[in-house]
Amino acid sequence: MPPRISVPSCGPSTAIKNILAIGSGRPSIRSYMTKPMEPSFSKGAGDVNALRDRLDPLLSTNGGRWALANEGEALERTFKFKTFAKTWDFMTAVSLQCKIKNHHPEWSNVFNTTFIRWTTHNPKGLSDKDVDLAATCDSLAKDFGEVEEPAGASCEMKGLADRVAASAGDCCTPKSAKQ
Ligand SMILES: C[C@H](O)[C@H](O)[C@H]1CNC2=NC(N)=NC(=O)C2=N1
C-alpha cells in the first residue's frame, strides 16, 4: 500500500512544503510520504478494537466525512445546510444530544455552515462519546437536509473554533480535581 500524502486542510500542504525543500539537502522525498494519522484514544476508552471498528467508517479515509485532527485526539468535520434556520435546528438537535450524553463539542457556525470538532478533554483523547456523537451528527445532518460536501473545513471555521476553545472555561476537569 503506497504511503499516503497527508494534506492538511489549512495552510500550505506538507507535500508542497517538502517539495519546496528539494535541493535544500533536507530529506524531502521520504518526509512528504507521511503515513495517515492514527487515532489517540483517551484513557478508559474501553475496548479500543471495538471503538476503532465504530470509528473507521466515519473517517474520510474510509469513505466517511470526518478527519482525525490534533495528533489523532479529535474528529472534525464541516456541515452545510440550505439556510441558517436549518443549520440552527441541526445545532439545536446536536446540543440536545450533548445534554443527554453530557459531552460537549468544540464548534463554530457562520450562517449555513457549522464546523464541529469532537475530542475528550479529560481524560485527553478520543473517547467512545466522541465517536458516537460524530455518528449521531451524521445522522442528524441527513434529517436536516445537509447539502453538498464542503471541501474540507475552512481555515476560518477551524480558527474560530480554536480561538473559542482556547478562551472557554474549563468544562471538563471534575470539580474535586480542581481543589
Ligand atoms: C463533569 C463532566 O462530566 C465532565 O466535565 C464532562 C463534560 N463534557 C465534556 N465534554 C468533552 N468534550 N470532554 C470532556 O472531557 C467532558 N467532560
CATH class of the domain at 61-168: Alpha Beta
The 3D shape can be described as globular
Helix amount, in percent? 25-40%
The gyration radius over C-alpha positions equals 18 Å
Task: List the secondary-structure elements in sequence, H or E.
Answer: HHHEEHEEEHHH
Describe the protein:
The protein has 179 residues and is of the alpha+beta class. The chain has a domain at 61-168: Transcriptional coactivator/pterin dehydratase (Gyrase A, domain 2). 39% of the residues lie in helices and 15% in strands. The chain is built from seven helices and five strands; from the N terminus they run αααββαβββααα. The protein has helices at residues 14-20, 29-32, 48-55, 84-101, 128-143, 155-167, 175-178; strands at 67-69, 74-80, 106-110, 113-121, 124-125. Strands 1, 2, 3, 4 and 5 form a five-stranded antiparallel sheet that branches. α4 runs antiparallel to α5. It is globular, with a radius of gyration of 18 Å. Ligand H2B binds next to β4. Residues 102-104, 120-122, 171-172, 174 line the site of the ligand C[C@H](O)[C@H](O)[C@H]1CNC2=NC(N)=NC(=O)C2=N1.
